[in-house]
Design a protein that fits this description.
Blueprint (H helix, E strand, L loop, with lengths): L15 H4 L10 E2 L11 H13 L9 H15 L8 E4 L2 H12 L5 E4 L5 H9 L3 E4 L3 E3 L2 E3 L2 H7 L4 E7 L11 H13 L3 E5 L26 E5 L2 H4 L7 E4 L3 H13 L7 H13 L1 H25 L12 E5 L9 H7 L2 E2 L1 E2 L10 E5 L4 H16 L1
Parallel strand pairs: 1-12, 3-4, 3-7, 7-8, 8-9
Antiparallel strand pairs: 2-10, 5-6, 9-10, 11-14, 13-14
Helix pairs in contact: 2-10, 3-10, 4-5, 4-9, 11-13
The structure holds pyridoxal-5'-phosphate.
């Protein structure tokens, strides 16, 4: 079983998270930014990959039935939903999946709703494809975020075609409740809006919160919803670029697949296929231990910051990301720059939209020793 306390050197592996620091002038930054984990993937995944490597021939490869069955069983067991094999469309990642959906279901100039503060690439993919962003900011009350349904009704007009949902929500860590998803779904169905539900963080949810795959909350959503999933975050295999869309509507599935086919993308990376199947088959016990470790990290961060600083935070309901509120930081200095100067690299809150000004996002998927070092840097920075 993986020891989550074990520190594995990642520098020198071309890791975005650990090696990207050569772009800054500051040496030996502690990088708790980009959302991958510092943990080894489950042993079952490593074994399956080794077996494949040992074969020595890596020719064109298709996905066997067992690949699809592993996804179906995982979603039944973990999320209590029956996914049908013919809903599944493999994708090379969730962000590419969002891009395919935008190309399939909207036209240049159409408006697409996102709910900031939210994951930066949502903004980028919409504008890079020549569509317009329609913002429905989340409402914050004492560090807890909710969707603004009244504003949502108001901002939808005849050019609004799509809403991209982040579920669970990066960076604020909300796991949307069934009633919230029902209300969102009802509005989008009534207003004829397609929902692209990015559920990449679905498995990283702390009890008693429960993730609801969007189409499980109402049968009516089967006709207007695209679910995007991937084992990338859950099992720390983002470098293998493997994901899956679930599209129950045949019409939408055909349109989505047509975009993929038109780009002649080969999405059969042999190692992505092997790792995905093995992770979904053998990863459940590992996931439970991971969740336990991450939750304790979150408790540690919260209690440390509460007792030693005026930085506020909440234990997230889901994701391995914490949203730190530095708005009490009493200085003219830029907190992000100060943290960098002191050796800590977090994601600057404004990257997620102007609602994120004064916040930083911290990735807690690392050993507790590293978390402790990071917290000491935060303490030193805000005390000065
Ligand atoms: C909400 C969300 N969607 C998508 C991604 C990236 O997905 P992929 O690497 O599969 O494109 C991330 C990674 O941080 C994320 O947080």
């Amino acid at each position: 079983m993986t020891s989550f306390d074990k520190i594995i050197e990642r520098r020198g592996t071309n890791s975005y998270k650990w090696d990207f620091g050569h772009n800054t002038r500051i040496k030996n930054l502690l990088p708790l930014w980009v959302a991958d984990m510092d943990f080894e993937t489950p042993k079952g995944v490593i074994e399956a990959m080794k077996n494949r490597v040992n074969h020595g021939i890596y020719g064109y490869t298709f996905r066997p039935d067992s690949y699809y069955q592993s996804i179906i069983s995982w979603f039944k067991e973990i999320h209590d939903i029956e996914i049908k094999k013919d809903w599944i469309v493999p994708i090379p990642g969730v962000v590419p999946g969002i891009s395919f959906a935008i190309q399939a279901f909207t036209n240049p100039g159409d408006k697409i709703i996102i709910q900031p503060p939210v994951y930066r690439p949502f903004y980028e993919v919409i504008t890079e494809l020549g569509r317009r962003i329609n913002l429905n900011p989340l409402i914050e009350e004492n560090g807890y975020y909710k969707m603004d349904f009244e504003n949502l009704e108001k901002i939808i007009d005849e050019r609004t075609r799509m809403l991209i949902l982040c579920s669970p929500h990066n960076p604020v860590g909300r796991v949307w409740k069934k009633e919230e998803l029902e209300r969102l779904g009802e509005i989008c169905i009534r207003k004829n809006i397609i929902i692209v539900s990015d559920e990449i963080h679905a498995d990283i949810v702390y009890s008693p919160s429960k993730h609801n795959v969007l189409i499980s909350v109402s049968e009516k959503l089967l006709d207007n919803t695209i679910i995007l999933t991937a084992p990338n975050k859950t099992f720390n295999i983002a470098g293998l670029q493997s994901g899956n869309a679930f599209i129950p509507s045949k019409k939408l599935k055909d349109q989505f697949s047509a975009v993929i086919n038109s780009q002649h993308l080969s999405m059969s990376n042999i190692f992505g296929i092997v790792a995905t199947e093995a992770a979904y088959k053998y990863g459940k016990t590992w996931l439970n231990s991971l969740l336990d470790y991450l939750y304790k990290n979150a408790e540690f961060v919260k209690s440390y910051l509460e007792s030693k600083t005026n930085v506020k935070t909440q234990i997230p309901e889901g994701t391995f990301l914490m949203w730190l509120d530095f708005r009490n930081y009493n200085s003219k200095d830029d907190i992000h720059k100060k943290l960098l100067e002191n050796g800590l690299w977090l994601n600057e809150g404004k990257e997620f939209g102007k609602e994120g000004i004064g916040f930083e996002r911290m990735n807690i998927a690392t050993s507790r020793k590293i978390i402790e070092k990071a917290l000491k840097i935060i303490e030193k920075t805000v005390k000065k």
